[in-house]
Design brief:
The protein has helices spanning 23-40, 43-51, 72-83, 97-103, 143-156, 170-180, 189-199, 203-209, and strands at residues 60-66, 87-93, 112-115, 129-135, 157-166, 215-219, 223-229. With 231 residues, the chain is α/β, with parallel strands linked by helices. A 7-stranded mixed beta sheet has the order 3-2-1-4-5-7-6, with helices on both faces. The protein is globular and about 50 Å long.
Length: 231
Protein backbone atom coordinates (compact mmCIF):
# COMPACT_ATOMS: atom_id res chain seq x y z
CA UNK A 1 0.00 0.00 0.00
CA UNK A 2 1.47 3.40 -0.95
CA UNK A 3 2.48 5.75 1.87
CA UNK A 4 3.46 8.94 0.03
CA UNK A 5 0.70 8.32 -2.53
CA UNK A 6 -1.77 6.90 -0.04
CA UNK A 7 -4.66 8.86 -1.58
CA UNK A 8 -5.58 8.70 -5.23
CA UNK A 9 -5.27 12.07 -6.98
CA UNK A 10 -8.48 12.75 -8.91
CA UNK A 11 -7.87 16.45 -9.57
CA UNK A 12 -4.59 16.72 -11.50
CA UNK A 13 -4.81 16.80 -15.29
CA UNK A 14 -2.31 15.64 -17.88
CA UNK A 15 -0.79 18.39 -20.00
CA UNK A 16 -1.26 16.50 -23.26
CA UNK A 17 -5.03 16.54 -22.69
CA UNK A 18 -5.06 20.32 -22.92
CA UNK A 19 -6.25 21.47 -26.37
CA UNK A 20 -3.67 24.26 -26.40
CA UNK A 21 -0.63 22.19 -25.40
CA UNK A 22 2.54 22.54 -27.48
CA UNK A 23 1.90 20.61 -30.73
CA UNK A 24 5.52 19.47 -31.21
CA UNK A 25 5.78 18.20 -27.65
CA UNK A 26 2.50 16.37 -28.21
CA UNK A 27 3.84 14.73 -31.37
CA UNK A 28 6.97 13.72 -29.48
CA UNK A 29 4.77 12.26 -26.75
CA UNK A 30 2.78 10.17 -29.23
CA UNK A 31 6.02 9.00 -30.82
CA UNK A 32 7.61 8.07 -27.49
CA UNK A 33 4.57 6.09 -26.33
CA UNK A 34 5.89 3.13 -28.29
CA UNK A 35 9.06 2.97 -26.25
CA UNK A 36 7.25 3.50 -22.93
CA UNK A 37 4.68 0.80 -23.66
CA UNK A 38 7.27 -1.69 -24.90
CA UNK A 39 9.14 -1.32 -21.62
CA UNK A 40 6.38 -1.24 -19.01
CA UNK A 41 2.95 -2.08 -20.42
CA UNK A 42 3.46 -5.84 -20.83
CA UNK A 43 1.31 -6.14 -23.97
CA UNK A 44 3.50 -8.86 -25.48
CA UNK A 45 2.89 -11.02 -22.40
CA UNK A 46 -0.81 -10.14 -22.39
CA UNK A 47 -1.09 -11.04 -26.07
CA UNK A 48 0.49 -14.44 -25.40
CA UNK A 49 -1.58 -15.24 -22.30
CA UNK A 50 -4.98 -13.63 -22.97
CA UNK A 51 -5.36 -13.18 -26.74
CA UNK A 52 -3.30 -15.62 -28.81
CA UNK A 53 -4.78 -18.74 -27.22
CA UNK A 54 -8.27 -17.66 -28.36
CA UNK A 55 -7.39 -16.66 -31.93
CA UNK A 56 -8.66 -18.94 -34.69
CA UNK A 57 -6.64 -20.05 -37.70
CA UNK A 58 -8.40 -19.83 -41.08
CA UNK A 59 -10.92 -17.44 -39.57
CA UNK A 60 -11.42 -13.69 -39.20
CA UNK A 61 -10.58 -12.54 -35.68
CA UNK A 62 -11.44 -9.04 -34.51
CA UNK A 63 -10.22 -6.63 -31.85
CA UNK A 64 -11.28 -3.17 -30.74
CA UNK A 65 -8.73 -0.83 -29.12
CA UNK A 66 -10.30 2.04 -27.17
CA UNK A 67 -8.16 5.19 -26.98
CA UNK A 68 -5.26 4.20 -29.23
CA UNK A 69 -3.10 7.28 -28.45
CA UNK A 70 0.04 6.94 -30.54
CA UNK A 71 -1.19 3.79 -32.28
CA UNK A 72 1.76 1.64 -31.21
CA UNK A 73 -0.25 -1.04 -29.41
CA UNK A 74 -2.67 -1.97 -32.22
CA UNK A 75 0.27 -1.96 -34.64
CA UNK A 76 2.26 -4.29 -32.39
CA UNK A 77 -0.73 -6.62 -31.89
CA UNK A 78 -1.36 -6.80 -35.62
CA UNK A 79 2.25 -7.73 -36.30
CA UNK A 80 2.44 -10.33 -33.52
CA UNK A 81 -0.76 -11.98 -34.72
CA UNK A 82 0.41 -11.99 -38.35
CA UNK A 83 3.73 -13.51 -37.32
CA UNK A 84 1.81 -16.28 -35.55
CA UNK A 85 -0.29 -16.91 -38.66
CA UNK A 86 -3.56 -15.34 -37.53
CA UNK A 87 -5.86 -12.99 -39.41
CA UNK A 88 -6.66 -10.27 -36.85
CA UNK A 89 -8.72 -7.28 -37.93
CA UNK A 90 -8.20 -4.33 -35.58
CA UNK A 91 -10.42 -1.29 -35.15
CA UNK A 92 -8.66 1.39 -33.09
CA UNK A 93 -10.68 4.38 -31.92
CA UNK A 94 -9.82 7.70 -30.29
CA UNK A 95 -12.01 10.81 -30.06
CA UNK A 96 -9.01 13.15 -30.25
CA UNK A 97 -8.40 14.45 -33.80
CA UNK A 98 -4.75 15.05 -32.90
CA UNK A 99 -4.27 11.30 -32.43
CA UNK A 100 -5.86 10.63 -35.81
CA UNK A 101 -3.56 13.17 -37.45
CA UNK A 102 -0.52 11.53 -35.88
CA UNK A 103 -1.30 7.94 -36.91
CA UNK A 104 -2.22 9.07 -40.43
CA UNK A 105 1.50 9.54 -41.06
CA UNK A 106 2.53 6.12 -39.70
CA UNK A 107 3.31 3.00 -41.71
CA UNK A 108 0.91 0.39 -40.36
CA UNK A 109 -0.63 -2.90 -41.54
CA UNK A 110 -3.76 -2.68 -43.73
CA UNK A 111 -5.80 -4.77 -41.28
CA UNK A 112 -5.91 -1.82 -38.84
CA UNK A 113 -8.59 0.86 -39.12
CA UNK A 114 -7.94 4.01 -37.09
CA UNK A 115 -11.17 5.90 -36.46
CA UNK A 116 -11.96 9.18 -34.73
CA UNK A 117 -14.88 8.29 -32.50
CA UNK A 118 -15.91 7.51 -28.94
CA UNK A 119 -16.84 4.00 -27.82
CA UNK A 120 -20.37 5.24 -27.07
CA UNK A 121 -20.84 5.76 -30.84
CA UNK A 122 -20.48 2.03 -31.52
CA UNK A 123 -23.65 -0.05 -31.55
CA UNK A 124 -23.27 -3.52 -29.97
CA UNK A 125 -26.35 -4.75 -31.84
CA UNK A 126 -24.62 -4.02 -35.16
CA UNK A 127 -20.96 -4.66 -34.44
CA UNK A 128 -19.13 -7.14 -32.22
CA UNK A 129 -15.45 -7.81 -31.56
CA UNK A 130 -13.77 -10.93 -30.22
CA UNK A 131 -11.57 -8.75 -28.00
CA UNK A 132 -11.90 -5.26 -26.60
CA UNK A 133 -8.77 -3.71 -25.11
CA UNK A 134 -7.54 -0.41 -23.77
CA UNK A 135 -4.27 0.92 -22.39
CA UNK A 136 -3.88 3.62 -19.74
CA UNK A 137 -7.52 4.67 -19.88
CA UNK A 138 -8.88 3.56 -16.50
CA UNK A 139 -7.08 6.20 -14.43
CA UNK A 140 -8.47 8.99 -16.63
CA UNK A 141 -12.10 8.18 -15.85
CA UNK A 142 -14.47 9.13 -13.07
CA UNK A 143 -16.31 6.21 -11.49
CA UNK A 144 -19.50 6.67 -13.53
CA UNK A 145 -17.52 7.00 -16.76
CA UNK A 146 -15.52 3.88 -15.94
CA UNK A 147 -18.61 1.80 -15.20
CA UNK A 148 -20.25 2.99 -18.42
CA UNK A 149 -17.26 2.12 -20.57
CA UNK A 150 -16.91 -1.29 -18.91
CA UNK A 151 -20.52 -2.07 -19.71
CA UNK A 152 -20.13 -0.86 -23.29
CA UNK A 153 -16.98 -2.95 -23.69
CA UNK A 154 -18.69 -6.04 -22.32
CA UNK A 155 -21.57 -5.61 -24.77
CA UNK A 156 -19.23 -5.03 -27.72
CA UNK A 157 -17.11 -8.10 -26.99
CA UNK A 158 -17.70 -11.82 -27.49
CA UNK A 159 -14.58 -13.25 -25.85
CA UNK A 160 -12.46 -11.06 -23.57
CA UNK A 161 -12.14 -7.45 -22.43
CA UNK A 162 -8.71 -6.27 -21.25
CA UNK A 163 -8.05 -2.91 -19.63
CA UNK A 164 -4.34 -2.51 -18.91
CA UNK A 165 -3.34 0.32 -16.61
CA UNK A 166 -0.89 1.67 -14.08
CA UNK A 167 -0.87 0.66 -10.40
CA UNK A 168 -0.25 3.49 -7.97
CA UNK A 169 2.95 2.99 -6.02
CA UNK A 170 5.53 5.14 -4.27
CA UNK A 171 8.27 3.09 -5.93
CA UNK A 172 6.70 3.49 -9.35
CA UNK A 173 6.55 7.25 -8.92
CA UNK A 174 10.14 7.51 -7.67
CA UNK A 175 11.67 5.22 -10.30
CA UNK A 176 9.77 6.78 -13.20
CA UNK A 177 10.73 10.26 -12.01
CA UNK A 178 14.41 9.31 -11.96
CA UNK A 179 14.75 7.25 -15.13
CA UNK A 180 12.32 8.89 -17.54
CA UNK A 181 13.77 12.40 -17.42
CA UNK A 182 17.05 11.71 -19.27
CA UNK A 183 15.32 9.45 -21.82
CA UNK A 184 12.09 11.21 -22.75
CA UNK A 185 12.93 14.78 -23.67
CA UNK A 186 10.85 17.52 -25.29
CA UNK A 187 7.60 15.70 -24.55
CA UNK A 188 4.97 15.28 -21.85
CA UNK A 189 6.02 11.73 -21.02
CA UNK A 190 7.64 12.41 -17.63
CA UNK A 191 5.25 15.04 -16.30
CA UNK A 192 2.10 13.31 -17.50
CA UNK A 193 3.43 9.90 -16.51
CA UNK A 194 3.87 11.08 -12.92
CA UNK A 195 0.39 12.56 -12.96
CA UNK A 196 -0.97 9.27 -14.28
CA UNK A 197 0.71 7.32 -11.48
CA UNK A 198 -0.87 9.64 -8.90
CA UNK A 199 -4.29 9.22 -10.56
CA UNK A 200 -4.08 5.44 -10.87
CA UNK A 201 -5.67 2.84 -8.59
CA UNK A 202 -4.33 0.18 -6.31
CA UNK A 203 -5.69 -3.33 -6.82
CA UNK A 204 -7.92 -3.09 -3.75
CA UNK A 205 -9.30 0.28 -4.78
CA UNK A 206 -10.16 -0.85 -8.29
CA UNK A 207 -11.79 -4.03 -7.01
CA UNK A 208 -14.19 -1.95 -4.91
CA UNK A 209 -15.21 0.13 -7.96
CA UNK A 210 -15.75 -2.41 -10.75
CA UNK A 211 -18.54 -5.02 -10.95
CA UNK A 212 -17.85 -8.31 -9.18
CA UNK A 213 -17.71 -10.33 -12.40
CA UNK A 214 -14.63 -8.38 -13.51
CA UNK A 215 -11.17 -9.56 -12.46
CA UNK A 216 -8.36 -7.30 -11.25
CA UNK A 217 -4.79 -8.62 -11.30
CA UNK A 218 -1.41 -7.15 -10.40
CA UNK A 219 1.16 -7.28 -13.19
CA UNK A 220 4.87 -6.54 -13.05
CA UNK A 221 6.02 -3.80 -12.97
CA UNK A 222 3.45 -1.65 -11.13
CA UNK A 223 0.58 -2.62 -13.42
CA UNK A 224 -3.09 -3.56 -13.09
CA UNK A 225 -4.98 -5.70 -15.58
CA UNK A 226 -8.77 -5.51 -15.45
CA UNK A 227 -10.47 -8.25 -17.43
CA UNK A 228 -13.90 -9.65 -18.26
CA UNK A 229 -14.20 -13.12 -19.81
CA UNK A 230 -17.41 -14.25 -21.47
CA UNK A 231 -18.45 -17.71 -20.40
Amino acid sequence: MPLFLSQRDTESKERMDSPDCDPQELRNTYRQFGRVNSWISQWKAIYKSKIRAHLQHNSQNSLLDIGFGGGDIPIALARWAAKDGFNLSITAIDPDPRAINFVAELDYPPNIAFLQCDVSELNPSEEKFDFVISNHLVHHLEKKELLNILEQSRELSTNTVIFNDLRRSDWAYMLFNIFSRPIFRSSFITEDGLTSIKRSYTKTELQTVVPQDWTVQNLFPFRLMLTYDHE
